[in-house]
């Protein structure tokens, strides 16, 4: 019953001695500042405490059962080397606070410095912060930052950006102050409609936002858009939700991006039902002072030895208060550490090979499924590890049939794009074996046969 | 010039077990690998056969090439330069650095939680939804509120969501309110969250007792004030005794009372914030509910609200019909989404485990022992350190460096000297209303022996300040690095490794003294 006392070391004698030192008779007296009428007279209505074994039994009992998964769309099943979990479980890392006292936080600080460097190398940018909450909130902060820099209220946002990310931008901006213009995607290619975007450009546009690979898995070609938006004095923001793609994709920094943000979950962080994840945020040096979030910088100690500190904090809430560039305080430090360890293991060759394997597995799935009657790859532009599949039938029913075979066959697109009402987003990673892909295709074929075709 | 070999010998001699460790980019070599991928079971084609070359990168310039052993040694060494709750006493005020139960870390790794995709069909994750639904209920019960969203990723994110909800509430009524009242003792996030949510922050002074007075609020409360943000207990560790009356005044003029629940650790099972008239409160699961801080996150900042504000909560909300749980995305007045998916589920899971381990009596005991520890610490140290608010505190207490001023010793020196004795320093120079503040929060998980050791150390340091102040000015000395030049870091920002200057990992004792550090000074060196 009182197993919780394992976290509470006070003996009766301790309490007595401490009260005596304080000069009061009871613990209750310590709460005298709280007006009596508000003090609770009965216990909180919570379940009886559980012992450790009972707690484990309870939680194991409510966990979900495994399925073969072809789900993605911003959260990806990738292999996580055992090293990651072991190293982040060192309690010097995970039980430490934000590294405000650098002399006792050099481990965290050096790791973040390494993380910042890796993110710059990955994106081709000059500066990275120490992390944001997730890809979506990172993108919303990028939009706010672009408005701070340009003083312009209009943002051109590609419709092929992750729908949830777009919603988060919508929440973060003040509709009275800022305006979002949606730029459609090309129905055949699945890429942002560059012409439509260029037409909307003008002196009032603060930034253009594209995602690469986009929500359809399609690889965008945005260099031109970058040049055009720069001509009118706006910024190019590039985001991503599948970071592994940058093992082979050209870094956005080489293609004119001014701010590059994205989701880092793919780098060693479990999908964990949507969080905690890792918001990546990078930009160029000239915009440092407008950046949100913490930064770690290199310096020396009084003996001239290299060390690391939190720096440029005059942008941040604890110093700048209401004039800060963002309200972010706690970020996703341990997730940034996971990504750093993950990338250290994979290294230069490993990340490239991992990306290539993802590409090849998805290409294989595309090839297999192309041969199935009633299935069609919806967009013609090249993709990375996910693609939009059009099926002749009700996608929900197809998915239901696959689920009966313990396969999560894809994500129905209709709730995000009403016009894509026969479409699935299918994600294939290195975790999907050839056998699984074949099985998926086979079950898909069966499901489509039994599903009465709908004329589209 | 010394040779590389001599440098290595010197390094070993210099650092003992606090080993030097270069950056990952400064070690390893071409062809070394620390990874193992699944076998290639499909045809392998090069990327350029699928994707046009101009969209592909040449190589991952700068990325390291390390073996698994290299990686493990590297991060193990790094970890040894850190100080965490498991290393010892961590009295960091307003941060609630309590013990992080290990079973919670274990259950978060259960496959059927960690490996579940957020877009999985809801019918196959009923256990997860049940867990979230129940956690919402527990947090509502603890705070005395009606509904909870678990989506905010941190306390500041909860604040932002809360203020956006308030903004949406007023706009829905066709009202425009522009101001948020924020006390001078508030966390910096309260101020910045107000701005991000398009409000203007208006400061409000706390009184000579260190709390807000209803009279002051009455004077500043007008029909332009959307809400007052109150931290309770506040950052001086004091209970806002007049909050009930303040809430009455604010409500009367159509405003809301937002509570920053960062300090809830003092109140569980003792009083419910909802009963005091609070309309919304965010909680920091990584403080009160025992989840680790992770060296700066991930945390979680659930937001609890009264019924009137429920329609504006971010989507989706979790509903229960019979024995079935489901997400409802259809909330017409919702502020929308504040992040992708549903929140930091991995963190929620640990807090859920914590609440189930503690139960009602356990949580009440937590608050009682947290307050007992803080009062004990305060009482035992007040003869040695100046205590600006000399009456009983809640979960934390705030001292200053005033007694040590005459020896030209400041708060930073005291904090750094604590490191030499093996303690993490308290929060320094906060709250801003106290000059040279030393803010200490022992939490309930520290034993009396642990507190006594810390108290004896603080007393020793007070004596050292008097008799040998240089010991403090030169502290810390028994660490990986000594005081760092923060001015240099900010003036010439070096925020990533660029391959230049690789030799500075070897300490050079003969280098000229670095420039003065504004905050701490460089002492006698």
What does this structure look like?
The complex is a heterodimer of chains A (456) and B (525). With 456 residues, chain A is of the alpha/beta class. Chain A folds into 3 domains: 3-61, no CATH class; 68-75 and 350-450, Aspartate Aminotransferase, domain 1; 82-342, Aspartate Aminotransferase, domain 2. In chain A, 36% of the residues lie in helices and 14% in strands. Chain A has helices spanning 12-22, 52-62, 82-88, 91-94, 106-123, 135-150, 163-172, 194-200, 223-231, 317-320, 333-370, 395-404, 434-450, and strands at residues 68-69, 127-128, 154-158, 179-183, 205-211, 235-240, 259-263, 279-283, 296-300, 306-310, 375-377, 386-391, 407-408, 411-412, 423-427. A 7-stranded mixed beta sheet of chain A has the order 2-8-7-6-5-3-4, with helices on both faces. The longest helix of chain A has 38 residues, at 333-370. The radius of gyration of chain A is 26 Å and the shape is globular. With 525 residues, chain B is an alpha/beta fold. Among the domains of chain B are: 19-80, no CATH class; 104-358, Type I PLP-dependent aspartate aminotransferase-like (Major domain) (Aspartate Aminotransferase, domain 2, 3-Layer(aba) Sandwich). Helix content of chain B is 33%, strand content 10%. Chain B has 14 helices and 12 strands. Chain B has helices at residues 4-15, 68-80, 102-107, 111-114, 126-143, 155-172, 188-196, 214-220, 243-252, 345-381, 411-420, 448-467, 470-473, 486-491, and strands at residues 147-149, 179-183, 200-204, 225-231, 256-260, 280-282, 303-305, 317-321, 324-328, 397-400, 427-428, 437-440. In chain B, the strands form 3 sheets. Chain B has a 7-stranded mixed beta sheet, sandwiched between helices. In chain B, strands 10-12-11 form a 3-stranded antiparallel beta sheet, with helices on one face. The longest helix of chain B has 37 residues, at 345-381. The two termini of chain B are 25 Å apart. At the A-B interface, helix 1, helix 2, helix 3, helix 4 and helix 5 of A face helix 2, helix 3, helix 4, helix 5 and helix 6 of B.
